[in-house]
Prior knowledge:
The protein has helices spanning 42-62, 68-91, 137-143, 149-153, 193-196, 201-210, 213-226; strands spanning 3-10, 20-27, 30-40, 96-98, 100-106, 109-115, 119-124, 127-130, 174-175, 180-181, 187-191, 233-240. The protein is α+β, with helices and mostly antiparallel strands.
Amino acid sequence: MKISYSSRTDIGLVREVNQDRWAYVSCGWGDLFVVADGLGHKEGGQFASQIIVDLLKEKLSEKDPGEIPGFLRHTIEEANAVIHHRKMNEYGDAMMGSTCVALLIQENIAFVAHVGDSRIYHLHGSELTQLTKDHSLVQRMVDDGLISKEQAEKHPNKNVLTEAVGAEPEVNVEVRQEPLRLTSGDKFLLCSDGLWGLISHDDLYEILSREKPETATDKFIDLAKQNGGYDNITAQVIEVVG
């Protein structure tokens, strides 16, 4: 299938540096999209997010990845080892790591992997579905029935992660085992929490359903900044066009 896409990142209105990174690579094995949101130490967070996108691009380009879910998991685990090694040797106890969402499209199917609270949304027909579940404290509280989804959106600890690439010696990479079947008109949004945390689900749907990728990314960034822009903001929009 053919695809159309647009990617954009913005430092936002508050942060001193942009720790978000995104990547797109197309080769014989498919089309890979990645968003990584560095966290913690200012320089270390940028290093962490950059390592993730660089390794995924490099590994996908150099040889046939074989089984895609395994490829995504093992490559992100490799990034985790590199990042954690540098964290322990250069930054010690400093908080450092990155989230990661990856979407790999092969012809008419798509594979998904993620760590942390960056997200992938899928628009199919008139339904917008969040494909990833946040690795966060408030999501765990929602799963345990302690708070509602509505309470989670305004919870003071909503940005506390339970998983991040590089934060610990081991990382739990969540990979969708069954590929997603694609049809013409399907759209995807990959984004950091600086975007979804400031835009309602209804507004995400409204923009994604109405706009082409290049205008959708602009509108997402602009709306997030209008609503506060307290974090770095990154959006990748992909449309299956045939």
